[in-house]
Design goal:
Elements: E1 2-6, H1 9-19, E2 23-25, E3 28-30, E4 35-39, E5 45-47, H2 50-53, E6 74-76, H3 81-93, E7 96-100, H4 105-117, E8 124-126, H5 134-141, E9 145-146, H6 151-181, H7 194-209, E10 215-225, E11 228-235, H8 252-262, E12 267-279, H9 287-298, H10 302-314, H11 336-343, H12 351-356, H13 392-407, E13 413-424, E14 427-438, E15 469-481, H14 490-498, H15 508-513, H16 525-534, E16 538-541, E17 544-547, H17 549-557, H18 560-563, H19 566-580, H20 585-603, E18 624-629, E19 632-637, E20 646-650, E21 653-654, E22 662-669, E23 676-682, E24 685-690, E25 699-703, E26 706-708, E27 720-724, E28 732-736, E29 744-748, E30 751-755
Parallel strand pairs: 1-4, 1-7, 7-8
Antiparallel strand pairs: 2-3, 3-4, 5-6, 8-9, 10-11, 10-15, 11-14, 12-13, 12-15, 13-14, 16-17, 18-19, 19-20, 20-21, 22-23, 23-24, 24-25, 25-26, 27-28, 28-29, 29-30
């Protein structure tokens, strides 16, 4: 029996259809030739929490950090226990297993970890499915590969999972405890990817807040040539007066003086540069590229795009959505006629007429086997979706995928770029022109306003020759003002995560990380952005992302090594090395563990200023914190155990008036244990208590600002304390602190006197 373990039920159904002879049973599908297909629900195993390794981690204490499992352990998720039992039983009965996880590192891991968890010793194959249509499934079933070929992919996913655990469990505890001690509420979640992503938004907001606009000027001159007019811009000498560091002209009078000088001066065409240029076909989409473009074109969030593309994939209309690849394998070329036939049915913007012009003999740059790994770019399948039956977002995204696919069968866009330099009175003016030679694939996007190709400086220039005379025909001085950087929206933030090399602090890393895939993965970036909003770090304001006070507070005291993407980007690069086998999983983990220890050591000197709304302890001036005790909520000093000041809770705030144990600051030596006695102002006056209240617990009356220390004359162990009689107000007596000693003495002007006379 051959057992296929799919990542999810939809994938399992597609495989079963490809195998034929389906007979559905509980948690699996029996197929022809003894094949059985079962499924997971994504990860059906999860990592243990710190307190499951050791109960002491149930309470968050800095002295317990770092938490680094000696042996990493998994457990079955509660909602997956029944399915796990089915899978385990099928593995015990089969002869061979096929890993049918999605064709990415997480898909590889989630099946491999189940096989390892049950102790599988059976041979394992791997099937890679980039599409769920019948043709693709049957081809994949004929091309099973040894599962060992994908050990690097599994290890990369495992390394990512453990690195995220180490950062999340250790640094979240570290900074949450420190933040709480400063009077901040809630859990401060720190993540390997989420924190530098959040920091991008915070820093962008700071740039906007502190931005100071600069007014500058651009001089444009219209020159007349016998064959037409030429609009040119003044090329200012770099060393001239009036320019700022960015080469912008800040003094309008300089531009006015230029115009006055050249109005009657002779001018000529000094130089003409022409170059034939080509623009290759729009590549098919990876998930990130589609999310970014769909956000720009339609305003969809990355999560909306991912969820919709997952639906289209499960309906067999498009290929695997979580792809990080923009290229296609050449063996997919044979499907082009069938796919284009389906696309011809799309009645939108004259698309069907464009499909009729497709030339399947054209080989665009997208067809490149060397660029293909486990998956390829997102394209339509050979299954006809019946375009009109799709909902609006499905139509728009399918149409974008279809446009990009169709572009591969149109000619390269070709144009001639012209640059004319005009000289007048020793000054130079530049005009740029563009003449389309072959519009090619851009015909597909002609009616899409978002794809408008008209850009500044792309005018059609008149025919002219070097040395031709031109005359001044007009001018204008444009007043411009620098703009603040734009806020991130979910799509542009995702783009920043993908192009993280642009945001690293260390310039030397930019070139090194340019080829890196960024931070996060195609499958996780949308979820990370969504999670930052759910955790209260980011909010949406007019479709833009803005940081909350919680996020701004976190970035103020979190170290730069955590908030800048440098470290995380390097880790992502190392995960790529794990994937291709150039770095072992053990070596990667040792690096992460060392980094966690470095983070913890660096945090020892971090001081977090008290929160603005924090209630400060009247004795030590540290923030008070609302806690829950046996009798309900109360407020305790975060300086505990050094300071034991408490307040009752009143409507969620400390009841300062009901305070019963304010320290005065005076101390003495406890005669019982040798530790500090602390003078306390209670509801009935001053008294003294040992700081070690759990072990010693000694208390003494106050006598003229000092502890009243009187050894019991009977037991010679306990100490006498003065009490007021409950029955007779104003009557006092002395009693031994040792409960086994029954000594009671009369009060003699505030001091212990004679024993009470025996009762008659």
């Amino acid at each position: 029996m051959r057992l296929y373990i799919a990542e999810k039920p939809s994938l399992a159904r597609a495989i079963a259809e490809g195998l034929g002879g389906q007979h559905k049973k509980n948690g699996c599908i029996e197929c022809a030739n003894g094949n059985v297909v079962t499924w997971c629900f994504g990860h059906i195993l999860e990592q243990l929490g710190p307190d499951e390794y050791d109960e002491k981690y149930a309470h968050w204490h800095l002295e317990d950090l770092p938490i680094i499992p000696e042996h990493w352990k998994l457990k079955v998720k509660k909602d997956a226990r029944d399915q796990y039992k089915i899978i385990k039983d099928l593995i015990s009965k089969c002869d061979e297993v096929v890993n049918a996880g999605d064709p990415d590192r997480e898909g590889q891991l989630l099946v491999d970890e189940v096989l390892q968890y049950v102790g599988n010793k059976k041979p394992v194959k791997r099937i890679l499915l980039n599409a769920l249509d019948d043709k693709s499934v049957k081809e994949a079933l004929q091309n099973l590969r040894p599962n060992e070929d994908f050990i690097g992919m599994r290890n990369a996913a495992l390394g990512r999972s453990r690195a995220d655990w180490l950062v999340g469990m250790n640094l979240s505890r570290l900074y949450t405890v420190k933040a709480r001690d400063a009077g901040y509420d809630g859990v401060l979640s720190v993540g390997r990817v989420q924190t530098p992503t959040m920091a991008l938004v915070v820093r962008r907001e700071n740039e906007i807040t502190h931005f100071k606009p600069t007014t500058h000027y651009v001089a444009q001159v219209l020159f007349h040539h016998a064959n037409g007019n030429i609009q040119a811009s003044w090329k200012m000498p770099k060393d001239m007066d009036g320019l700022d560091e960015e080469g912008r002209l800040l003094d309008a009078s300089i531009a006015e003086g230029l115009i006055a000088r050249i109005q009657s001066a002779p001018a000529k065409i000094e130089k003409i540069e022409q170059q034939k240029k080509q623009e290759g076909q729009h590549l098919p989409y990876s998930l990130s590229a589609l999310q970014i473009e769909a956000g720009r074109r339609h305003g969809y969030t990355p999560q909306q795009v991912l969820d919709t593309m997952q639906k289209l994939y499960e309906q067999k209309f498009t290929t695997y959505p979580r792809s990080d690849c923009d290229y296609l394998p050449t063996n997919q070329l044979s499907d082009a006629p069938a796919i284009l036939k389906n696309l011809a049915g799309i009645q939108k913007d004259g698309f069907s007429a464009l499909v009729a012009k497709a030339d399947t003999s054209i080989r665009s740059r997208a067809w490149n086997d060397k660029k293909i790994s486990a998956h390829h770019a997102i394209i339509p399948t050979t299954v006809n979706p019946n375009f009109n039956s799709l909902n609006e977002i499905e139509q728009n995204l399918y149409y974008m995928v279809a446009q990009a696919y169709l572009a591969q069968f149109f000619p390269i866009h070709t144009y001639q770029a012209t640059r004319i330099t005009i000289e007048s009175d020793g000054e130079h003016f530049i005009a740029n022109g563009k003449a389309i030679l072959v519009n090619g694939w851009k015909d597909i996007y002609a009616k899409n306003k978002a794809e408008d190709d008209e850009k500044e400086g792309s005018a059609i220039l008149p025919d002219c020759q070097e040395g031709d005379s031109v005359t001044f025909a007009g001018s204008k001085i444009l007043e411009k003002e620098t703009k603040p950087p734009k806020r991130f929206n979910p799509s542009t933030l995702l783009k920043a995560m993908k192009e993280i090399y642009k945001y690293v602090k260390d310039p030397s890393l930019k070139a090194e990380l340019k080829e890196c895939s960024g931070i996060g993965t195609e499958a996780t970036r949308a979820g990370i952005i969504d999670g930052l909003q759910k955790r209260g770090f980011l909010a949406i304001d007019k479709k833009n992302l803005v940081p909350t006070d919680k996020a701004c507070m976190a970035i103020k005291f979190l170290p730069e090594t955590i908030t800048y993407p440098d470290t995380t980007a390097v880790w992502e690069e190392e995960l790529e090395e794990v994937l291709n086998g150039s770095l072992s999983l053990d070596d990667f983990q040792q690096k992460q563990e060392a980094k966690i220890r470095d983070f913890l050591k660096a945090a020892e000197s971090i001081h977090i200023a008290p929160a603005k709304n924090a209630v400060l302890c009247p004795n030590c001036h540290k923030p008070m914190k609302r806690r829950k005790g046996k009798n309900g909520f109360f407020w305790g000093c975060t300086g505990y155990p050094e300071c034991k000041t408490t307040f009752p809770d009143k409507n969620g705030k400390p009841d300062l008036k009901a305070h019963k144990s304010a320290r005065t600051g005076k101390t003495a030596t406890c005669p019982k244990c040798g530790k500090n006695l602390i003078q306390i102002k209670g509801s009935k006056g001053l008294f003294w208590a040992c700081e070690d209240r759990d072990t010693c617990g000694a208390t003494f009356n106050d006598e003229h600002g000092k502890p009243s220390i009187h050894l019991c004359p009977t037991c010679k162990k306990g100490y006498l304390s003065r009490y007021e009689s409950r029955k007779k107000k104003g009557a006092f007596f002395w009693a031994c602190s040792d409960r086994n000693c029954k000594t009671f003495l009369q009060d003699d002007n505030g001091k212990p006197g004679e024993p009470f006379p025996p009762r008659s």
